[in-house]
């Protein structure tokens, strides 16, 4: 059975542009995969704690040496990793905040980047362990930045680091430049969703 993991990071939750586009894609995916499973994770509604020293040490402490508090931290991270590792398709709604991804999404990444679990170091460099997945990323921006931007590069680099190299970006840009530009961008993004689905 096919499985899709939908990760939303807009502070506006379901009302955000990226959330709406991702939701439309998921609806189309469900029509084409009627027996498929969809897992939703809204990082604005249910934020993940920022990585601090105690959490990092919980990840790196051998399981048999963890305290109960450390084990609870590791268990939460393991749950997030199980969600993404069991998914065939990853759909991310990613608005641009101050030229970057939302901090809630970065924190999510901090909890799934675990050495020996989602990636490993080799003599030839790091090797991602989350393979055979497709990621579709919906990005909303107030201005025009295109694909050659640090935000896109970071997402591509991080996903590749954990083994997800089949990545498709759908941009909706110019949202702050006027109603006509916004309408045009939304229409183009919706057309791309139909093509992808």
TrEMBL record:
<comment type="subunit">
    <text>Homodimer.</text>
</comment>
<keyword id="KW-0560">Oxidoreductase</keyword>
<dbReference type="InterPro" id="IPR023048">
    <property type="entry name" value="NADH:quinone_OxRdtase_FMN_depd"/>
</dbReference>
<feature type="binding site">
    <location>
        <begin position="96"/>
        <end position="99"/>
    </location>
    <ligand>
        <name>FMN</name>
    </ligand>
</feature>
<comment type="similarity">
    <text>Belongs to the azoreductase type 1 family.</text>
</comment>
<comment type="function">
    <text>Quinone reductase that provides resistance to thiol-specific stress caused by electrophilic quinones.</text>
</comment>
<dbReference type="InterPro" id="IPR003680">
    <property type="entry name" value="Flavodoxin_fold"/>
</dbReference>
<keyword id="KW-0288">FMN</keyword>
<keyword id="KW-0285">Flavoprotein</keyword>
<feature type="binding site">
    <location>
        <position position="10"/>
    </location>
    <ligand>
        <name>FMN</name>
    </ligand>
</feature>
<protein>
    <recommendedName>
        <fullName>FMN dependent NADH:quinone oxidoreductase</fullName>
        <ecNumber>1.6.5.-</ecNumber>
        <ecNumber>1.7.1.17</ecNumber>
    </recommendedName>
</protein>
<comment type="function">
    <text>Also exhibits azoreductase activity. Catalyzes the reductive cleavage of the azo bond in aromatic azo compounds to the corresponding amines.</text>
</comment>
<dbReference type="InterPro" id="IPR029039">
    <property type="entry name" value="Flavoprotein-like_sf"/>
</dbReference>
<feature type="domain" description="Flavodoxin-like fold">
    <location>
        <begin position="3"/>
        <end position="195"/>
    </location>
</feature>
<dbReference type="Pfam" id="PF02525">
    <property type="entry name" value="Flavodoxin_2"/>
</dbReference>
<dbReference type="InterPro" id="IPR050104">
    <property type="entry name" value="FMN-dep_NADH:Q_OxRdtase_AzoR1"/>
</dbReference>
<keyword id="KW-0520">NAD</keyword>
């Amino acid at each position: 059975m096919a499985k899709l993991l939908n990760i939303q990071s807009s502070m506006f939750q379901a009302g955000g542009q990226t959330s709406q586009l991702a939701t439309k894609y998921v609806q189309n995916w469900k029509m084409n995969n009627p027996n498929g499973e969809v897992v939703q994770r809204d990082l604005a509604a249910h934020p993940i704690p920022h990585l601090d020293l105690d959490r990092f040490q919980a990840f790196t402490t051998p399981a048999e040496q963890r305290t109960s508090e450390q084990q609870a931290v590791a268990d939460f991270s393991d749950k997030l990793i199980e969600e993404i590792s069991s998914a065939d398709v990853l759909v991310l709604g990613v608005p641009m905040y101050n030229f970057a991804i939302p901090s809630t999404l970065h924190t999510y990444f901090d909890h799934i980047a675990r050495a020996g679990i989602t990636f490993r170091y080799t003599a030839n460099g790091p090797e991602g362990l989350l393979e055979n997945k497709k990621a579709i990323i919906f990005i909303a921006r107030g201005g025009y930045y295109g694909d050659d931007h640090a935000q896109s590069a970071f997402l591509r680099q991080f996903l590749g680091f954990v083994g997800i190299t089949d990545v498709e970006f759908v941009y909706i840009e110019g949202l702050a430049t006027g109603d006509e530009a916004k309408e045009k961008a939304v229409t183009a993004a919706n057309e791309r969703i139909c093509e992808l689905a």
